[in-house]
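Reviewers of the previous submission asked for a worked example of the structure-prediction workflow described in the proposal, so we include one complete record here. The input consisted solely of the amino acid sequence. No template or homolog information was supplied to the procedure at any stage.
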Amino acid sequence: MDVEYDVIVLGTGLKECILSGLLSVDRLKVLHMDRNDYYGGDSTSLNLNQLWKRFKGEETPPAHIGASRDYNVDMVPKFMMANGTLVRVLIHTGVTKYMSFKAVDGSYVFNKGKIHKVPSTDMEALKSPLMGLFEKRRAGKFFLYVQDYKENDPSTHKGYNLTKLTTKELISKYGLDDNTIDFIGHAVALHRDDSYLTEPAIDTVKRMKLYAESVARFQGGSPYIYPLYGLGELPQGFARLSAVYGGTYMLSKPECKVEFDDEGKVCGVTSEGETAKCKKVVCDPSYLPDKVKKIGKVFRAIAIMSHPIPNTAESHSVQIILPQKQLGRRSDMQVFLISSPRFIHYLLVFHLHISCVSNVGSNLHVCIPGMFSAVPTLIMSHQKANSSHSCQHKRRLIIQRRN
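From that input alone, the workflow returned the following structure tokens.
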């Protein structure tokens, strides 16, 4: 590796691969390395054997849950807004030619102990039990204001300066009740906690417009799309883009040490006794553990099930938002259901984001039974903590026995 590069990228997470691809397109000389033998880093998609090895060591997966190759289980599940920035980047860079996508069947919200679909059509809105008739009329006026709002056209602002007016102040002008505010803020604007209420309303309005534009883009039951074979496809797509433009990739490179000169500036990366010189380094936090600070904890549970979630119209892919007030928490929970494109199993991924809450584990177990008609039968449970990141991650792998 006695070569000098413009940029060395460490880690093959989505952010690192996007930057690697864009830098290569810009004709910079890029070397991209990862300690793992697969792409994606913490946001990779694993087959069943890889999943089992990560959580259960050398144990072999039970035969009754299927072949390893039929699974693509995301470690950090996330649906993409159909009209969001990431989708626009994928289209602009041409990375979409390396992968296929599917529309997510539905978006749901947990309210008063039940799961309800977030309406995506006028007819669904009329039938939805989330609001009463008169509340729907008031909410409709607010949604119409958001729909017509154009940031660069003052005639659509109705005299409101959304950069100064808080979200709470804006919504109060339409007389909406707390339940509706909770629905708008968490199920449509997708805020994770209630801090948005005291922040400028412009952000919430933009989020709501993005949600509506994304629903309209594919005329589906939700605003989301998803890579057919898992989120691990995304970093691989940008890695291919980098390679096309001359980027060099090296996987399974252990102990990648960032080197600094006497002035404290980056000068290279050493791995396996060889040093590659460079002018800049881009890396995920795990490669510079002494330069990052833990700011919270993220708990994730992964469950493999043989059926969809009850009360979701047998949907094979859904997102369910559990607002903080519905759970007595300080932040939301999110549930993702993804069906395998090549197998009969359905991969239920509980994706939970919490910051600095000490009783997370107990809340997780209290909530899970409420999502199902019966408590899942657990045949294996494990927890793992990964440090050296800006957030500490804890995961549970839960397998539900097939009926």
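Residues 343-362, 372-403 have pLDDT under 50 and may be disordered. We consider this example representative of the routine output the project will generate in years two and three.
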